[in-house]
Amino acid sequence: MAANSSSLSLSSHSSLPLNRSLSHRSHQPSPNLPFTNDPPSPRLVSVRAQGGSERAFSVDGFESGSGPKSVAHSDCTEASSSSSAIDFLTLCHRLKTTKRKGWINHGIKGPESIADHMYRMSLMALIVGDLPGVNRERCIKMAIVHDIAEAIVGDITPSDGVPKEEKSRREQEALNEMCEVLGGGLRAEEIKELWAEYENNSSVEANLVKDFDKVEMILQALEYEMGKLLVLQMVNVHDFNFLESQNTCASQDVLHVLMIYVREKSTDMDEYSVMGAEHGKVLDEFFLSTAGKFQTEIGKSWAAEIISRRNSRLANTLS
């Protein structure tokens, strides 16, 4: 992604209509996409037939618009909408349980989920100051949906060796599937539009949210790097050293408990150290990969603050 050093300014992309045209193609649900192994429960949907009449059908393909099982149109529409919403939200649960693969690949224990990452990005969009030509509400929505397709495809990272075009194709296909689960309509179209706008980096809002994506990542990297130091701050170091020097069963038991606690709260714990310089080196990759790639002045400013805090803590730890 090419860096754009200019600050945010009013753009023709800053206020995009909800009904703008997007490229659509006929799409059949792929059997390879891992929704669930359980058969779907029948749901009634309203379909407009030729001539303008509407009849109710269940999603398993059996017409339910005649006979004793026929339902009123309003009841059918309400039931379908509620069912589709819960189906969609249940699918999105995977965003809460799927861990970010970049941290897993670097040996982080108990890493953040995709939803964790998107939530803090949404908070960034919420608290950022007003910027000329930027629709802040749109930024919040975009942050919420930008990784939503990963509920199906998972977190694809550069280390997976998937070409960018193929990654985008998989995510577009997954997004279409999710919007079908939602039942289509205005909200589904809005999700598609927001996702495409972010994917194509085609507005000042997308520029800003792309920066938030990187800012959130390096802030999380800093927090993982500082994990060991934060644990030590919860344990009185003088008491820790005192217990370690004692030769009594009681004190050794307490020391053992404290060391287990520290190990559980730390990551990559082969050999305990206050900062864990080796662990810091591993996470350097996340800072290096984002250097010079921030597009907005807000992104540059927030990233600089994170890097400044990192450098300051490293200097204090090593001094």
From TrEMBL:
CC per GO annotation: cytoplasm
UniProt xrefs under InterPro entries: HD/PDEase_dom, HD_domain, YfbR/HDDC2
Region (Disordered): 1-46, 57-76
Biased composition (Low complexity): 1-21
Pfam families linked to this entry: HD_3
Catalytic activity: a 2'-deoxyribonucleoside 5'-phosphate + H2O = a 2'-deoxyribonucleoside + phosphate
GO molecular function term, any single one: 5'-deoxynucleotidase activity
EC number, UniProt record: 3.1.3.89
HD domain ranges (all copies): 114-218
PANTHER family: 5'-DEOXYNUCLEOTIDASE (PTHR11845:SF17), 5'-DEOXYNUCLEOTIDASE HDDC2 (PTHR11845)
Oligomer status and interactors: Homodimer.
Function: Catalyzes the dephosphorylation of the nucleoside 5'-monophosphates deoxyadenosine monophosphate (dAMP), deoxycytidine monophosphate (dCMP), deoxyguanosine monophosphate (dGMP) and deoxythymidine monophosphate (dTMP).
Family statement drawn from the similarity comment of this UniProt entry: Belongs to the HDDC2 family.
Name used for this protein in its record: 5'-deoxynucleotidase
Taxonomic placement: Eukaryota, Viridiplantae, Streptophyta, Embryophyta, Tracheophyta
